[in-house]
Amino acid sequence: MSTYVIILKEKRPANELLLKLKEAQTPILNCDLVEPLNNKSDHENSNSYISEEVFANQSSFNNIKILNPALARKDRQKTLATWLIPFGFVAGLSFSQMTDLKTFADMGFPNQLEKLLGGLVGMISGVLGSFFSAGGISQEIVDDLRALRKKSEEGFWLLILELPIEIEPPWAILNETDSIEVITIGKE
Q: Which residues 6+ apart lie within 8 Å of 112 measured at CB?
């Protein structure tokens, strides 16, 4: 998917843009409207324009996975753990079975538990693998996130659009909008 962050001065143009995109039948996978960290606009004025249909999920900067690397890391860690832990158990069990080592028996554990304990050690390695593998993000994304955080702190609204990778964003509609800037964040 391709992710575009449209930086806007206020909420009203975001709602207008979403209406235009819906009329143009643009396939949007996900849409989030991020309120400014330093909200200078008065809430009564910005909320008076909202139509009955809500097109975007409105939330704060730190609750959006793409803007908060810690949330994204937790999600990746859970995903990795779901297959690394069972794989580690099976690999540890298999390794103990194939090598017939007596590592745990030499430590005083019963010989019957040797293979099971090998599987548990494999599970522990799966947990550690999911923890360390889910780490880092690229420096380019970190720089984009800093710029977006700065814009949000300055009082700008961020409209995050996720489109299918094969779909080019409707630049004509985006150019009609009173936006400050459009930032593209990594393609998956």
A: none
Please state which of the four CATH numbers 3.30.70, 2.60.40, 3.40.50, 1.10.1740 is assigned to the domain occupying 2-68+148-187.
3.30.70
Question: How far, in Å, CA of 165 to CA of 152, rounded?
Answer: 26
What would the pLDDT profile of 70-83 be if each residue is shown by its tens digit? Answer: 787 888 899 999 99
Domain chopping of the chain, boundaries: 2-68+148-187, 70-133
Q: What is the dihedral of CA 138, 170, 63, 130, to 10 degrees?
A: -40
| pLDDT at 167 > cutoff 60 | yes
Mean pLDDT of 135-154: 75
Cα separation, 88 vs 119, in Å, equals 7
**Which of 135, 6, 7 has the alpha carbon at shortest distance from 69?**
135
| pLDDT exceeds 90 at position 165 | no
Residues 6+ apart with CB under 8 A from 49: 11, 12, 15
For 94-123, what is each residue's pLDDT tens digit?
A: 999 899 888 888 888 888 888 899 999 999
* Pairwise CA distance, residues 161 & 157, whole Å: 13
Instruction: Tally the C-alpha atoms within 13 A of residue 26's C-alpha that lie toward its C-beta.
Output: 24
